[in-house]
């Protein structure tokens, strides 16, 4: 298993005790487990078959007859299962239409989250592709102040509180504008919720901050000394001063726009790089051969081993 150290700009190969016959996606495995990469501790979760539904008869197949989007796309935790073995929630985005489901310790199955759209969110309500199937088209989710916040394909913000009696996603902020971005991310940074949209290849990136009073997104180019790390992992915001060699007001991306991988159109990762919010320039953070393909996509990790804090790495799975 390869690790790339951002501060040293070196690649390390660590023989970690993890199985290599599994499909990794963020914090989870497609079988489904929660896995600690460094001690191989695993928490068994309900299987994918308990998702409703995992496979839709209308899902498109690739040349191998596989439905790549009918698995876990992203998994986020409310707490560390090692420290809170009986008090955590797992939220998953899954399936070809990016629905959401959650799991709590002791559950026998995943529970799908119903959607309660706002009357103001006309883009979501009128979307033609949603008229004949249950879908939510969520693209990213984070845990912040005892709630899960998710952003969908249209840029609308959804919220799920852990204490509600009937699990449901509520529309908090409608679609903010008509600007289209291939990928959207939501991240908590210094007490703010940020919405990041980007197109692929990475030539157009937009960052907006949530105005909690007016419940609207406001464009910003100032991360207040922070840097963002976005990809298939849970979105991270870290202080640049804590990581020598890393740059404040920059966004570090891994390539999780993999449609071209599956189609064979792109031989290597086209959208791995560092985006400068101030001037819009992009630079590579890892020089990789154009024939190297990472499937699944690499993820960012910030591991803590005992009392020692390891430097920031990007983790590549082969």
TrEMBL record:
Start and end residues of each KIB1-4 beta-propeller domain: 3-276
Domain of life: Eukaryota
Cleaved signal peptide residues: none
One protein family per Pfam: Beta-prop_KIB1-4
Alphabetical list of InterPro entries matching this protein: F-box_BR-signaling, KIB1-4_b-propeller
Protein name as it appears in the record: KIB1-4 beta-propeller domain-containing protein
Organism encoding this protein: Aquilegia coerulea (Rocky mountain columbine)
């Amino acid at each position: 298993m390869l690790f790339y150290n951002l501060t040293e700009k070196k690649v390390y190969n660590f023989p970690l005790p993890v199985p290599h016959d599994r499909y990794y996606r963020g914090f989870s495995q497609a079988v489904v487990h929660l896995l600690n990469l460094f001690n191989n501790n695993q928490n068994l979760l309900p299987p994918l078959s308990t998702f409703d539904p995992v496979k839709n008869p209308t899902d498109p197949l690739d040349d191998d007859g596989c439905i790549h989007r009918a698995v876990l796309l992203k998994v986020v935790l409310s707490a560390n299962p090692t420290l809170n073995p009986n008090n955590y929630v797992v939220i998953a985005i899954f399936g070809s239409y990016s629905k959401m489901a959650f799991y709590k310790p002791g559950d026998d199955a995943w529970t799908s989250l119903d959607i309660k759209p706002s009357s103001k969110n006309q883009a979501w309500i009128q979307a033609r592709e949603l008229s004949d199937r249950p879908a939510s088209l969520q693209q990213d989710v984070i845990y912040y102040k005892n709630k899960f916040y998710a952003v969908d394909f249209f840029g609308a913000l959804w919220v799920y509180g852990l204490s509600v009696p009937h699990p449901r996603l509520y529309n908090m902020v409608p679609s903010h504008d008509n600007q289209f971005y291939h990928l959207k991310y939501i991240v908590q940074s210094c007490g703010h919720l940020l919405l990041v949209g980007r197109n692929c290849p990475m030539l157009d990136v937009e960052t907006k901050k949530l105005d909690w009073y007016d419940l609207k997104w406001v464009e910003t180019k100032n991360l207040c000394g922070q840097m963002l790390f976005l990809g298939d992992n849970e979105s991270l915001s870290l202080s640049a001063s804590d990581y020598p060699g890393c740059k404040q007001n920059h966004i570090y991306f891994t390539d999780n726009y993999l449609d071209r991988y599956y189609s064979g159109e792109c031989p290597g990762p086209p959208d791995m790089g560092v985006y400068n919010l101030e001037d819009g320039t992009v630079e590579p953070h890892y020089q990789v051969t154009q024939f190297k393909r990472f499937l699944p996509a690499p993820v960012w990790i910030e591991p803590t081993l005992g009392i020692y804090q390891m430097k920031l790495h990007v983790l590549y799975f082969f």
